Amino acid sequence: FHAVGHLPGTDAAAERAVVDGARARSVGLYGMSACRSNRATAPPRLVLGFGDVGERAITEGIARIGDLLAGACRPGRLVAGQDLS
What we know:
This protein is an alpha+beta fold. It has one domain. 35% of the residues lie in helices and 12% in strands. The chain has helices at residues 12-24, 55-64, 66-72, and strands at 3-6, 30-31, 45-48. A 3-stranded antiparallel β-sheet has the order 1-3-2, covered by helices on one side.
């Protein structure tokens, strides 16, 4: 991993909402729950730059989803299944 982003709290729905919103914007982002051997959904984490992704691409991707990340940091604002595109 290049980096793992920590989302506040224990709400797995926030991880899923950010990942889904990022993919809707063509930003490849993965929830850490998909990488855990036991598939645990908490704590919510984001995998940034898995594999051979350069620093510039990661920086650009984060800029494209900054509002999603900000929303995930505000309790009650981001909901799984919400249209974020």
